[in-house]
Design brief:
By secondary structure, this protein is mostly helical. The protein is built from 23 helices and no strands. Helices cover about 75% and strands about 0% of the residues. It has helices at about 1-10, 25-40, 45-65, 70-90, 90-125, 135-145, 160-175, 185-195, 205-210, 220-255, 260-295, 310-315, 320-335, 340-360, 365-380, 385-405, 410-430, 440-465, 465-480, 485-490, 495-510, 510-525, 525-545. Helix 4 runs antiparallel to helix 5 (about 90-125), helix 4 (about 70-90) crosses helix 8 and helix 10 packs antiparallel against helix 11.
């Protein structure tokens, strides 16, 4: 028995690909309980507290990503010294070289792990070669450490897209003079790797988070209640509603769209819009709650996005930290809505080539080339055309790159492009819309409905495994939409549709009503809180599937 106990304890400290400690696992809450207990002892000394949370965060990342924690440590070490060098230097050229090095290195790592397969396949197509992807990190490890990792397969480190952008935020803020660099390595490491949000955000700006690292720990009764509410809310979103409707309906439909009716495909697409929101915002809610228990405030990443009356408003409510990052570090530097810079036209050209390689179709280059020529001629003779091109090109670039940030596939480029077109079209439509300024309930309903359905349509490309599957879903919806079978489908999957209806109703509830039940929980006695927590845990265990579903954004 003692041997078994020792084995269980020691195995907890060893990485296991099949049992990572993520928010939906019991092992995570055992881990967090131990962390919180020790935290209460060390929290009075800032340096010791930050060191402890840094070490805990690195361990957490190791338990979810294995030896990729070494890559995280290297990135943290590199940026720690680069930021200091940028701050100390008075030579503008040297500062630009250092910040360029930082951007290239970080984006280079991100590109290597996310886009190596795409670039290799594209190179083979263009030059008729037969090159294969090589995992140089595994190759070096095998050579110098005697390991036996596969060298022909590149795995994506969980959270690399998020922590890369977060660390870059720090270096760019130092470069722009908005922030002084940290001189304690462990303090910076703590900011860069804070475990609640490192895997899926929200992306935290250094200037918002670092000042909190040197404030005394304080957890009021209100904050404690709010933290518990956010954690429970996130778990219920993800595990009770999101995972259930995915496992029992959505995944089945998308697994083979042609086997199901157009109505079932439509319901699956609408359901996926709800699932991806519940999954991602659920993670964020849990992260915010955990951070709050530890005395740190993370910014909200979602603001009831499906209440948006336009695509522009939607992107102010959805994945707010990424939208803000792209606006601050891409959209505005390119010229924003004022003008298109030389960089804008270079990037749009590269993206065109990128799309052509993805589609393996040179006709794309011809179409875009002719379109660019026509727009160029019109812009030369008609100033208004040039103005519209200049003020919208950066918007399209931002959304296209946002799509590629998720994945270098046609699906995500189309998804980003459609959302970019939606934003551009809305900019023109709001100027001529007869009901743009009307505040009546029917108008509000129509705006929310059309925005939601447009966003839901783009989700087809987000969810489908490839363009073939996306086309199958669209074909079934457009050619086999028989509403007469809807009652039977709803009856057969009544549990799924009940949960979907519940999810949408709660989402569309007025904010003041949501605040009322949130306030009720926060102010409730401890005994009632415990009862509610136990009730929520019961529902979670009743609805959870036998196979633990990872958070959707872990793949990005």
């Amino acid at each position: 028995m003692i041997d078994n106990l020792i084995h269980i304890i020691t195995s907890f400290f060893v990485y296991s690909e099949t049992s990572p400690i993520i928010f939906t696992s019991i092992s995570f809450w055992i881990f967090f309980t131990a962390v919180f207990a020790i935290f209460t002892i060390v929290q009075k000394k800032f340096s010791l507290r930050n060191l402890f949370l840094f070490l805990v965060s690195i361990f957490f990342y190791y338990k979810t990503s294995g030896l990729f924690f070494l890559l995280l440590l290297f990135t943290i070490s590199n940026e720690f010294f680069v930021a200091q060098a940028i701050y100390k230097s008075q030579n503008q050229l040297k500062r630009k070289i250092l910040v360029t090095y930082s951007v290239i290195l970080n984006i280079g790592f991100l590109s290597y792990f996310k886009y190596a397969y795409f670039f290799t396949e594209s190179f083979n197509k263009v030059f008729h070669t037969n090159n294969h992807v090589v995992n140089y990190f595994s190759l070096w490890s095998n050579s110098f450490a005697g390991t036996h990792f596969e060298i022909d397969k590149i795995l994506l480190p969980i959270g690399i897209s998020f922590y890369t952008f977060q660390i870059l935020t720090y270096t760019l803020d130092v470069y722009r003079g908005k922030l002084k660099p940290l001189y304690n390595f462990f303090d910076f490491g703590f900011y860069a790797s804070f475990f609640p949000q490192i895997l899926s955000g929200p992306i935290v700006k250094a200037r918002d988070f670092i000042p909190q690292m040197y404030k005394s720990y304080a957890l009021s009764k209100y904050q404690f209640g709010l933290a518990l509410f956010m954690i429970l809310n996130g778990l219920l979103k993800k595990m009770v509603v999101g995972d259930y409707i995915a496992t029992n309906f959505i995944d089945r439909i998308f697994g083979n769209p042609l086997l199901f009716t157009g109505i079932e495909n439509l319901f699956a697409v609408i359901g996926y819009s709800l699932q991806v929101y519940l999954d991602f915002s659920g993670y964020t809610d849990i992260a915010i709650g955990i951070a709050l228990l530890l005395g740190f405030k993370l910014n909200s990443n979602f603001n009831s996005p499906y209440k948006a009356e336009s695509t522009a408003e939607f992107w102010k409510r959805w994945h707010i930290s990424l939208s803000s990052w792209l606006q601050e570090n891409l959209y505005i530097p390119l010229g924003g809505n004022r003008k298109g810079s030389m960089a804008s036209y270079i990037i749009i050209t590269v993206l065109t080539v990128f799309l052509a390689l993805l589609l393996d179709a040179t006709i794309v280059l011809w179409i875009v080339g002719i379109l660019a020529l026509v727009l160029g001629i019109l812009s030369y003779y008609i100033p208004k055309v040039k103005h519209h091109v200049d003020t919208n090109i950066n918007l399209m670039i931002t959304m296209l790159l946002g799509g590629l940030w998720h994945n270098p596939t046609v699906n995500f480029l189309v998804w980003g492009g459609l959302n970019g077109l939606g934003l551009v079209i809305y900019k023109f439509w709001r100027k001529i819309s007869p009901y743009q300024n009307l505040k009546t309930l029917p108008v509000h309903f129509w705006k929310v409905f059309t925005t939601f359905m447009f966003i839901t349509f783009t989700r087809i490309f987000f969810r489908a495994e490839d363009m073939t599957q996306a086309n199958e879903v669209i074909t079934k919806i457009t050619s086999d939409l028989k509403w007469s079978v809807a009652p039977k489908i709803i009856a057969n999957f009544w549990e799924v549709f009940t949960l979907m209806a519940f999810g949408f109703i709660v989402h569309w509830l007025p904010s003041n009503i949501k605040w009322q039940y949130r306030k009720f929980f926060i102010k409730s006695p401890v005994v009632l809180k415990v009862f509610i927590i136990l009730l929520c845990v019961f529902f979670i265990f009743q609805t959870m599937s036998s196979e633990m579903k990872p958070f959707i954004y872990f793949q990005f």
